[in-house]
Amino acid sequence: MTSSAQYYGTVRTRDEKDAPGRLYGRLTDALLWTALEQSVFSRLPLSFTYVDVSARAGRWARRIAAEYPHSTGVHIAPTPEAAAEAGARSARAGHGPRVRHLAARPGELAGLLGGHGHDLVFHDCSYLSSFSQPEAGLRELASLMAPGGLMVSFLPSRWHTAHEYLGCGDLQAALHSLAGHDPGGPGAPHAHLFTPGQIRLLCRALDLRVDALTGFPGLVLPASGCYGRFPYEEAGFADVLKMERELLIDPDSGARGANLLAVATRPAASP
């Protein structure tokens, strides 16, 4: 139920409906990029390769291409039409030669990308929610990693989603959330929800080492009444962003975040 609850092929967001939704999405994006800069990009080689499997029309693939001009990447879209649209956006931004946009359905990633391991695999909950069990989707994503490569998982929090539903008076949806399933709203399919401990167990089962695990936003709740008074001016937004960024460096604060971010490493092959 977070303000940017994503699922494969679509982004369910309040952005088009109200200004607070836009601000919350902007805050989340800023915190995600901060976390990536702190925990991911400094660990990658100069000319790193990456895969973006997220329901944002290739947005993160384009941003990585813009900020890291020596990188090359692949964005996975749910349909050929979505891949073509994302490719056109990359071409307009001047990233066309370095970012490919491909369409894939669940179970097709390994065959589509071949045996080439990537330095970075970035994904949100959208692809995992296409599987009845998230373990299957995570296993396929992990197969895209090179030895020593990183996987960044950006996933909705089970606890935070239940908290939001309770705040709206929807007890049944809150109960579903605590069981790990967001029932979604009208026209929105369910999404898998996660806890920090669950993410660690999933990665351990795939022989991945979790190096960092945090969560955000942790101070601002999109469904709360006070959120309607969220500061609109830039100075106020900057103050809230600063407070949220301070939480990122506290390992004990991540569990309260609306979204969980885990950075996992595939151990390098033994000599």
Structural description of this entry:
- By secondary structure, the chain is of the alpha/beta class.
- The chain has a single domain (4-265), classed as Rossmann fold (3-Layer(aba) Sandwich).
- Helices cover 38% and strands 23% of the residues.
- The chain has a seven-stranded mixed β-sheet, with helices on both faces. A two-stranded antiparallel sheet has the order 1-2. A two-stranded antiparallel ribbon has the order 8-9.
- Helix 2 (59-67) links the parallel strand 3 (49-53) and strand 4.
- Helix 1 crosses helix 10 (234-248) and helix 7 (158-167) runs antiparallel to helix 8 (171-178).
- The longest helix has 21 residues, at 19-39.
- It is globular, with a radius of gyration of 18 Å.
- Residues 1-17 have low confidence and may be disordered.
Could you name the key traits of this structure?
about 270 residues, alpha/beta, Rossmann fold, two-stranded antiparallel ribbon, 10 helices, about 25% strand, disordered N terminus
Radius of gyration: 18 Å
| Main sheet characteristics | 7 strands, mixed
Structural class: alpha/beta
Residue windows where pLDDT falls under 50 for at least 5 positions: 1-17
CATH class type? Alpha Beta
Topology record:
Blueprint: E1 4-7, E2 10-13, H1 19-39, E3 49-53, H2 59-67, E4 72-77, H3 80-92, E5 99-103, H4 109-113, E6 118-124, H5 125-128, H6 134-142, E7 145-156, H7 158-167, H8 171-178, E8 181-182, E9 191-192, H9 196-205, E10 209-216, H10 234-248, E11 259-265
Parallel strand pairs: 3-4, 3-6, 4-5, 6-7
Antiparallel strand pairs: 1-2, 7-11, 8-9, 10-11
